[in-house]
# Entry
Amino acid sequence: MLAFVIRRIGQSLLVLLIVGLVAFSMFRFVGDPIDNMLGQERTIEDVERLRAQLGLDQPFPIQYFKFLEGAAQGNFGVSYRQGRPVAEILLERAPATLELAAVSGVLAILAGIALGVFTAIRRNGPTAHTIMAASLIGVSLPTFLIGILLIYLFSVELGWLPSFGRGETVQLGSWWTTGFLTESGWKALILPAITLGLYQMTLIMRLVRSEMLEVLRQDYIRFARARGLRSRVVNFRHALKNTMVPVVTVIGLQLGAIIAFAIITETVFQWPGVGLLFINAIQFVDIPVMAAYLMLISVMFVGINLIVDILYVFIDPRLRVDRNGGH
Amino acid sequence: MTTPVLSIRNLSVEIPTRQGIVKPVDGVSYDVGKGEILGVVGESGAGKSMAGNAVIGLLNAPAHISGGEIWLNGRRIDPLKGEDMRRLRGKEIGMIFQDPLTSLNPLLTIGDQLTETMLTHLPISRKEARERAIAALEEVGIPGAAERIDSYPHEFSGGMRQRVVIALALCAEPSLVIADEPTTALDVSVQAQIISLLKRLCHERGTAVMLITHDMGVIAEAADRVAVMYAGRLAELGTVRDVLTVPQHPYTHGLMASTPLASQGRKRLHQIPGAMPRLHHMPDGCAFHPRCPHARDKCRAAPLPPVANERAACWFPMLPEEVQ
# Structure
């Protein structure tokens, strides 16, 4: 087990290095940050001096190496636009995104599994058919459109919920701000959370349904029924557990996607998270912010995948290769 | 006479399909007594498994019982539904499936699967259930049962898994066990062990067994009586000795002749010409007549004679001297 975890962590680090390299090489095509930083009234000397000061005159591999050197020590440089350390800016924005992602993720997983199980068990019922039809909308509508529709309905027409921002936040500890403790914070969270989680929810639901239908056809389910077990036990203890093996992988990937795709939702709702920060950074070619954001996202993706792989082993005993005594 | 454990009277199962209603089980009657093993034999699609599923109430929709009666220990069970039928399964009727590799849940230990079954049916504590689970595993011949109880199915071989399946089917001490091809998926060397285990356990407990198989060797070894099924109907019913040595139905005779025997050496095996009729296209009269070497006009036209409780459903049963 330990050897497995160490091996997976090694692979994860390699993935991170490659992601960083790809991201870094792309920044050269985004534009020249110097253009934005110095105004119209600039001399060639000014440009050259600033370029040297930022290290942008050095060859690309050296720039990347310097970035890695700093990143390993938790130093992501200074934002070109705000003139403050990038780590500080990201830390300030992270709680908003993480809270949004957590609420959407929990919503998507709970509702997705519950609806998936329901539509699998009652697969011929009218309610199940309605849910399945409705879920097609969730899968096929783009996120921004769902967001705009929700804003139109609940903010503009009904006026129940705010259309942008995070509401009132409360400071927790030195840097964490939370919207969970105020009414306006929760109200502001509802629409973005639904927007961000709807696609994942329908995806999880459809996956759980098809996996569960497959499992319900298995011999061991028939045998469990033939032993007279209650249908609740057959459905949840025997069928759902087997359903979860493939579902957990996808859920893991989707959690990563929720954080990454928060960019769109944050833009639609002007949610002050890291996604919005990234969009603004691109407009300004703020390379340190972009680089740090991409590294942060890839660390999360890789980390979640690592956790999923470990969870797998807990759910499925067949993967526990080094059980002593075994065969 | 004592009441039989299982009594099937004129049982029919129907499946509505696009081409019309088919009857995979058509007017079948037989009894299984206490401690008796009834072998149900026939080709694939003869309706033998379908009859077993009808008894335990696990027919897959849209298949359903369309006629006849099923009696278990003097109680009529075919009209039971839902929870009433569920309480009977496992407790009164145990079932053993064909493939031990797929009939155990891979994510639960065999101890979990045994205790959950016992706790569902018996008024005992979790601790007692565990003790009885160990005893049950010992009884079916799992070595080191106390240690192996927390193992997962994949840690056992095929034969051992089938022993676990038998322990599971018998753990709530049902009065009837339906064994649906219990040895078909196993190695030949293990088959005999499993059959003798099943035979010993059921004789000790007085459990009635409905042993569904297409293997005449298994029937000869384990069964007391045998029911031969053909195209959803009962062809012949009698003691193993009678049916196997002096078959009266030409189909049974054909089946026996096509079973390889070591004593006969390398003689070419007999084949019954043709194939079993499709359920959509059942011939008039006796279902076997298109393949029967002795078929006469009466077989083609007249419906089958009513199945007496003994012997063959045939207008012209074979005489002992005809059987070579």
